[in-house]
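Input record (one chain):
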Amino acid sequence: MRSRGIGMAMRLLVAVMVLEGMAGTSHAGLFGADETPGERFRKATAREAEYCATHKIKPTNRRCDITTLQPADPLATEEGRFAHSIRIPNPVPADSGYKPGMTPEQYFDHLCKTEAGEFIYKTVEDVEGLYMMRPRKGATDFELEHLYALEDPYGHENWEATAPAPAFVHPGQYGFLEMPITDRREPDWRKKYVHSSLMVPPQPGANIQRYFGYDGRNQKSLQKEYDVNRKSRHGYTWRGITRPHDREMGIAGGELIVLDLEANEVLAVRRGYIRSGDVRKNLTGVWWLGGHVCKSDSTRLFRTVEYIAQVLHPVPTQNKETFHVTK
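The corresponding structure, as predicted from the sequence alone:
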């Protein structure tokens, strides 16, 4: 019994020494000396592309999809071009401060300290509704694992892409949310769970879809209507930050911009950064959902709603169960 106990103790000691050795190993040591997240990503996707080209892959096997993804084009849409045309009071400098020899961690910490933050220039009281100027699209797992496929991994939240209205429209928040008409449609199986207006396709000539009426409890209370023009005076948009060294170091930046649309005035800017590329258990080393954000940054799920509400204060009397926009 004693010898068995000594053997177990020795095995435990060896295990502890191994773990301590791993803890002291840098990311560069684990993934390859002086290898950047960009180099790691390109090598991984090249190997996967070669495998897909030399093996017969079943149509139901989607593993090769990641090799066909392209870098996001920020200027591919009118909404994207407008977002990138906005001049803000505190633009990022052309020189990001990157120095040769910086590690991803060092460069990321530098960006967090010198550029990230919430900058509110003016607040507005009694805001009834909000215009989402640039609706996001839902991200697939492969896009979340891709270094370049998402323009703004920092600001992306799938709830904002797939079901933003309940987060913005409910008692205590805004009375309505407007956005350009999107190609997303409610699936037929949702018919018995939602208000009938959500199943109606847009009418010819309509440019805006507007959500209203949600009581915060019953999802059938949320309604949708179409219009030619928006009713909102205030809105928000977003854009990614693109500079030479950021993605190569596994870093993505993004800005959320709150605007007075009638005065053409920037009211607030939230800028932040996220770092990935050090994930050990997937193909590319990238997984944006688990990325590192600046220490002072919020990681709460509905941080976008909370930030906008700090700038555009909702009408206090909108704590009612229904709200309808009179045309």
